[in-house]
Amino acid sequence: MIGAPPRGARAGSRAAKISVAWSTIASLARYAVVMAGLQKFARVVKEVQRDVLAARERDPAARGVSRAEILTTWPGIHALLAYRVAHALHCAGVPLAPRLISMLTRSVTGIEIHPAARIGRGLFIDHGAGVVIGETAEIGDDVTLYQGVTLGGTGFATGKRHPTVQDNVTIGSGAKLLGPITIGHGAKIGANSVVITDVPANSTVVGNPGHPVRVDGRRVEGPDADWIHLPDPIAEAMGALSARIAELERLHAEAGVSEPRPPAQVTPLRPVRGRNPAGG
Description:
280 residues; alpha/beta; 2 domains
């Protein structure tokens, strides 16, 4: 055809267009990766800022201490900072690095948090030595953990096998929460309790195995560090038995079968004395 470009020129033009298209796609992909990385970085920064604020609000030792000092000297903050980074890498599918960060953090702080665990905003880990948070554990917002707390699994089954802790929960030193249980909003777990069943919202659990009880009928909302005025379920059960026996003895005395006796006095194994250490 007269005036038509040679076949080689047309092929070269087509190749140039394809090259420009691929270059544009690659540039857009790099831009998307960078933006996604920046968004994750910004999210991590905000989460760490909230963690530092939680430490200032709930740790009496942090009153009057600068944020920079908390960030550089609080082991719980170090563990959470490392977890936030490791979790972002885990969600991005990066191999090896998340577990390596978790292992190094455990060596430095004594706190082990699996990169796959899901942790909300404002978690405060006081002291932190011996804290273990398993792979499928889920923690809501504004939760407080003291040293020695374990959110662990039971058996060798895969899938969901660690606890779910809802918002505003306080878990005392040495408490063990085992299995895929749910700790309701505002609950309070007493020190050294072993919890293997669901805990209702706004309740208190003490003992081994843990017994859900109420504290003076009031709702537990937000971090509560009052470990003095906890109920004693053993003393309460013994008191109920003593009252029942006294009633039976009274009926026997009225029937002339036996002489009346005064009811037994039940003394709690751990008398409740002292003011609330959390204030108030």
